[in-house]
Amino acid sequence: MSQHHLKPLFEPKSVAIFGASDKIDSVGQIVFQNMLQSGYHGSLYPINPNHTEVQGYKAYASIAQIADSVELAVIATPPHTVPGIIEECGKQHVKAAIIITAGFGEAGDAGKALELEVLEIAQRHHIRLIGPNCLGVMRPDIGLNATFNKGSAIAGNIAFISQSGALCTAILDWASANDVGFSSVVSMGASVDVDFGEILDYLISDTKTRSILLYIEGIHNARSFMSSIRAAARIKPVILVKVGRHAAASKAAISHTASIVGSDDAFDAAVRRAGVVRVQTITQLFSAAKALSCGFDPTGNRLAIVTNGGGPGVMATDYAIELGLEMANLSDVTIQTLNQVLPATWSHGNPVDIIGDAQADRYQHAVQACLEDPNVDGVLTILTPQAMTKPLEVANVVIALSNQYKKPLLTSWMGEAQVDESRRAFNHAKKPSFRNPESAVDVFSFLSAYHKNQRLLLQVPGPISHHLAPDVESGRMIIEGALQEKRKILGEMESKALLSAFHIPVAQTMVARSPNEALLIAQQLGFPVAMKINSPDITHKSDVGGVMLNLANAPEVRAAYHEIIERVKSIRPDAHINGISIQPMVVKPNGRELMVGVTNDPVFGPIITFGAGGTTVEIMADRSVALPPLNHFLVKDLIQGTHVAKMLGTFRNMPPVNIEALESVLLRVSEMVCELPMLMEMDINPLILDENGVLAADARIVVEVRPPSEDRYAHMAIYPYPTHLVSNWQLADGTDVVIRPIRPEDVWLVQDFVKNLSEEARYFRFMKSVEQLSETLLVRFTQIDYSREMALIAVKDEQGQEIELGVTRYAINPDGESCEFALVVADSMRGTGLGQKLMTALMEIARSKGLKRIEGEVLKNNASMLKLMKRLGFTAVVNPDDSSIKNVYKAL
Question: Which of 66-75, 310-319, 395-404, 527-536 bottoms out in mean pLDDT, i.e. has the lowest?
């Protein structure tokens, strides 16, 4: 693939600064001075029509006067001048601009109109914009400090992206004092053009960046954000702070689920699924980044604590348990080892209290024993300066152990003057050290969350999880029937019919419209029965006295019919009543009442919720939230995220439930939200689960018209594995070939395929000599999101093992209308038609996505590929920047 389209923004060879000035403390003066003081490596041009010279540099009245090409424009002039400047930049073929100027969308309608004008001009000239109203951009390694921050940044390997310029200045000030370096600092401002998604995409391949930190106030494009953050998190640690955790819901909730699930729940579910660590404070942000950059290999949440003071150890233990961490159960071997090396008075358990007179050797033995224990996922070492303590000697021992083992090893040297030298030693060795144990426990919880979320990231479920396919068409017809009648809320019968179409067991229900009809239905179903008001206008039936249970005979049924109707009419005279729904009483003495729900977040789309059910669901608010699609691994994680999960095993006198039946329902609900974009809200409450199975006793579903889309999963933030693209093909010799989208587990299949290619084939594919793919490339090639990119591999079965025969892929360009492709087939497959088959399939997928053009680069001596391109109707032209390459393209 060609160089990243944001390279002119982050690695410009030349920069023009509009509004550069000598006026002390003006924005233009600070920006230009920052560029000079940071030692920018490229060409620098001040532009100010009122000056002939700026800080010793010749000043230009306009960009048209500059003879050389300019890649990046930095604009610090009044807002009304910006449209004209962008127009000038466009005529001079400037590729990117940073608009520091404020006074646009945040300034009211006039500013918003100006903002839209600037964006229209930029898009017309293909100029990418950061801002407006931003601090700017830093790339310390090349001396780019295009900000008005009073000060620079140390070069390092952390990329920091923030939606708050003010926060950037505070963090940069803190970072300099704490020796924290950056590969990039990006203040996004209003984000009218370039957003999180594209910046993350650039940082994925940026060799200077090892970890990515984000400060987020809001997400504009969920699909782009999720696509890019998932791609980044597969390769580099991503840690973020999201503000506005407790914002009130903006719309009235129709369903139980919508009333208890807020936007922050959706965001939390999204970042967990993206393999990202979310922290709550800026201090935690950098502490977590420092810990993840140490080369630790997080594997779980079992913590061991080694301390020379009992009190701090107990405090750390209490806090760890509050955070949901597990105190490691030390193995018998570890206990025996510690008995041999520690005084008889040691704590004989975890926390490992090695007594106040502990010297460096005692720390070494205890910490090493814990690190070698298979029951331990990480160790926190605490030191309190006591009479016999030698803090620096202990610190050096712990640093040596940290270099020897991959398990997280965190330290808390408590105190001040006596441990100051030790802290400097930890900082010099780039080891995470904390002033108090609680901060260290926090960071271990982040490392544990990172490990867990990375496992969630690897899950790539398809839209359909069961062998028994649902009746999707019937489900759509039920919804469309209601929408044609201008109804958004399905009746109880319709709701249960929809669940049945997806094979979710429901309680048999019939609707009575008179007392006599109620009697006949009750006798047909068998006593006892439950009776509930049937009204599209009433969400919570029990709130209006619309539910009566355990009706054992005909007189009770007749009386209940009249009583329910009268009570509901009295409380809700406006409600339209369709009758009374009657169903057998679900008698499950060992049943647990649960709730499964769906709601639609305005940013992240459909969200699945699981938790405790019943009439107190809003008050209890015991729920776990996940983004679909789900598979068995994700469903288990969803269930375990609730308190009610503890009641699903043996509980009091009740046997354990049929957990497989519950998992099946959650998978079926995932299928529903994948395949039914019109499904907006759903409550299955109560969902009654016991040792024999599960039954949906009640359901309420809200639907809505959605505009048609060529993308069947456009309503989802995470694209399901596209099983509908799997196809079978046959070579001329009768060999059966499966062509399917690539999966994360194909990583070694791809590595073997590349290894077995001839040197020429590898050179033609990668345009350089490649023996095998790096781990980073393997991840990028096999863990894709199927939304902004696609990769199809052709495989055959050979003695029960898949063998890769070829692969083709595309990535959608920033314009959203074209894509860049790559293709390679095994040397043994040349001349078989496989390459043409793969390309034809790929182009069909691109066409179905609404893409209008496919393009690529081919070495001019790759005769067979150029011949294939001609056969497929591609146009080939010489690359203007490199005559050894031909650009090929075709309209779709």
Answer: 527-536
Distance, in Å, from the CA atom of 282 to the CA atom of 241, rounded to the nearest integer, reads: 7
3-class secondary-structure state, position 21: coil
The CATH number of the domain holding residue 391 is 3.40.50.261
Same domain, 300 and 179: no
Which of 457, 481, 501 lies at the terminal end of a domain, its last residue? 457
pLDDT band at 251 (very low <50, low <70, confident <90, very high): very low
pLDDT value at residue 245: 58
Residues in the chain: 892
- Residue located via tokens 């003071």: 309
Same domain, 306 and 171: no
Write down the pLDDT at residue 420. 93
* Domain stop point among 440, 457, 474: 457
CA distance 773 to 503: 44
Tell whether 864 and 749 lie within a shared domain.
yes
Structure tokens at 668: 């079926």
Q: Are residues 293 and 177 in the same domain?
A: no
Residue 510 CB neighbours (<10 A): 18
Residue 71 near residue 14 (C-beta atoms within 8 A): yes
The reply to whether 678 falls in a domain is: no
Give how many domains the chain has, as a whole number.
3
**10 Å Cβ neighbour count for 884?**
10
Q: Which domain holds residue 66?
A: 7-151+162-187
Q: How much is the pLDDT for 618?
A: 65
Tell me the chain's radius of gyration from C-alpha atoms.
32
**CA atoms within 13 A of residue 877's CA, in its CB half-sphere:** 7
- Cα separation of 531 and 537, whole Å? 17
**Parallel, antiparallel, or unpaired: how do β-strands 679-689 and 592-601 relate?**
antiparallel
Sequence-ordered list of residues with C-beta below 8 angstroms from that of 812, at least 6 positions apart, any chain: 788, 789, 818, 819, 849, 851
255 pLDDT higher than 60: no
Closest CA relative to residue 298, chosen from 412, 450, 457, 456: 450
Query: Cα(532)–Cα(527) distance, rounded to whole angstroms?
Result: 15
Tokens of 343: 């005084």
Q: Which residue has the tokens 């290619």?
A: 757
DSSP state, residue 247: P
Instruction: Summarize the confidence of residues 133-147 as an average pLDDT.
Output: 95
Residue 349 lies in a domain: yes
pLDDT for 619 equals 65
- Determine what percent of the chain is predicted with pLDDT higher than 70: 96
Q: What share of the chain is helix, strand, coil (3-state, %, to 5)?
A: 40, 25, 35
Q: Give me the pLDDT at residue 772, please.
A: 73
Q: Which two tokens stand for residue 742?
A: 């690539």
Q: Do residues 147 and 99 touch, judged by C-beta distance below 8 A?
A: no
Place of tokens 């439950």: 530
Closest C-alpha to 435, from 367, 384, 378: 384
Task: Return all residues near 417 (Cβ < 8 A) that are at least 6 apart.
Answer: none
**Which domain CATH number covers 819?**
3.40.630.30
Structure tokens at 202: 């650039």
Task: Pick the range with the lowest mean pLDDT from 380-384, 533-537, 802-806.
Answer: 533-537
The values of phi and psi at residue 299, to 5°, are -130, -5
State the Cα–Cα distance between residues 162 and 166, nearest whole angstrom.
9
373 within some domain: yes
Residue 355 placed within a domain: yes
Q: Average pLDDT of the chain?
A: 90
Rounded CA gap, 558 and 551, in Å? 10
Beta strands 238-242 and 211-216, pairing class: parallel
* Secondary structure E strands in 519-673: 529-534, 547-551, 579-584, 592-601, 605-612, 623-626
Percent of the chain with pLDDT over 90: 67
Query: What's the rounded Cα separation, in Å, for the pair 55 and 30?
Result: 11
Q: Quick one: average pLDDT of 813-826?
A: 89
| Identity of residue 779 | V
- DSSP bridge pairs for 386: none
Per-residue confidence at 326, pLDDT binned at 50, 70, 90?
A: very high
